[in-house]
Amino acid sequence: MDGCTQMCRVFLILFNFLFALVGFGLVALGMWLRFGAETRGFFDIDMKTTQFNIGVMVLVVTGVLMLLVAIIGDCGACNNSKAALGVFSGLLTVLIIIEIAAGVMAFMWSDRVSDELVNFYATIYAQYVNTQSSAQAVTLEFFNNAFDCCGVGGPIEVIVRNTCPKGSFLEQLTYSSCPGAIKDVFNSKAQLVLGGFLGTAGIMTLALVCSCVLQRHVSVSHASPPAYVLLTSPPSAARMI
To answer: Which Gene3D superfamilies does the UniProt entry name for this protein (predicted)?
Structure first.
């Protein structure tokens, strides 16, 4: 096995290990969102909706597929299995296409995603003002710190100020509204999101190339095994070879 092939093998093993970790994380997140009792209390909104169920299903299916691809890829790379590498290459090609399509869709639908987040924030904000739930306070604080904002516009209720990013009283009065901040972030970061998807697809393409290199090496090694002479072979056999 030459140096290039050995590097491809090591890269595939590391890639599939990280791929499996990400896949396991997606499955765990999907299961937590679907079945975790604390999830319902954390968001305190009705999650028995078609959009939520589809989102959870996408997380779980994607995670399981990534785990399957990682296991098959590691088996092929560690055992020099041409069949496993072939299946790995096919499944990885499908994932690359999905990754690129998801990046393009996220870029094209960034306005729609930002509108959904704005509606979600406004719902939690209104519920917190009325119920003062600690779970909703955690959700508001997360959004406020993530987007460096506070409130939905206009005067900020005193009870909500505890969830604003830390700062002086004057700074809390000058925070931008979260609906506007969320839209600004999505409008300015949409290109970065697309770049992240395409960059991930590029790394997956490199793994696909390494898989093809290993497949070719396995085919060549099986087609032309090295010549050798058994120590117990008679001299006539050695001369024939």
So the answer is: Tetraspanin
Distance between CA atoms of 128 and 144, rounded to whole angstroms?
Answer: 14
Q: CA 71 to CA 87: how far, in whole Å?
A: 11
- The verdict on pTM exceeding 0.85 is no
Structure tokens at 212: 């093809």
Separation of alpha carbons 165 and 143, rounded Å: 10
Give the C-alpha separation, 162 to 127, whole Å. Answer: 15
The answer to whether 57 and 135 have CB atoms below 8 angstroms apart is no
End-to-end CA distance of the chain: 24
Q: How far is CA 20 from CA 8, 58, 71, 128, 146, in A?
A: 18, 16, 8, 38, 28
Burial of residue 134 (number of CB atoms within 10 Å: 0-12, 13-18, 19+):
exposed
Distance CA 165, CA 138 (A): 12
Question: What kind and span of H or E run contains 235?
Answer: helix 235-240
pLDDT in tens, 199-237: 999 999 999 999 988 888 877 665 555 555 455 555 554
Closest C-alpha among 146, 145, 148, 150 to residue 125: 150
Q: What residues contact 62, with CB distance under 8 A and at least 6 apart? A: 23, 26
Nearest to 101 by CA among 58, 144, 143, 67: 58
Distance between CA atoms of residues 169 and 22, nearest Å: 41
